[in-house]
Amino acid sequence: MKGKYIVLLTVAAGFMLLTSVATAHQSATKQRVAITVKGVSDGSLSGKFVFVPLEAGVLKSDSGPEQGVVAKQRSVMRDGQSVNVATWVTTAKGKHGTFVIRARIDGVDAGTGFRVGTGAWTFVRGTGQYDGVTGGGRLANGERASVWSERREGFLTLP
To answer: What is the DSSP letter of 75?
Structure first.
């Protein structure tokens, strides 16, 4: 009789192990990505984005136009340096879908016509390959002679 219970417990344990492995496989996965944007400093916050996966995963390379809108902007003084704190929302329309990002950046005058900034970005929503994606990361940008460039790196979680 004890032998039957041992066999039954072994089968039950095996079933639970298989179920947990299948459930773990269905869980969300993270993928490290980079988004580079380049534009003209004409006040429009428009540019061209390039989306590049930095590791293997579901999300594929993409590119297209990006258009931003400043949501909030203010100047503060930090340790004697004037800092422009800006929050904006930007929409990127690529071949594989559209996504919206919210970003916050602290920008400073770096001298001789250069402006630089660092901050953070958050993925708000998306369509196509970006549908249901969440996440975000850090960003840095620079501007000089009517041209600006920004690079965002971080992790996106896929459903």
So the answer is: E
Q: Give me the phi and psi of 133, to 5 degrees please.
A: -75, 140
Residues 6+ apart with CB under 8 A from 66: 37, 39, 46, 47, 48, 49, 90, 91, 92, 93
CATH number belonging to domain 29-158:
2.40.350
In the chain, where the domains are located:
29-158
**Tens digit of each residue's pLDDT (9 = 90 or more) over 87-139:** 999 999 999 999 999 999 999 999 999 999 999 999 999 999 999 999 999 99
Separation of CA 9 from chain center: 46
The enclosing H or E element of 149 equals strand 147-158
Q: How far is CA 42 from CA 25, 33, 46, 56, 117, in A?
A: 47, 28, 9, 36, 18
pTM of the model: 0.80
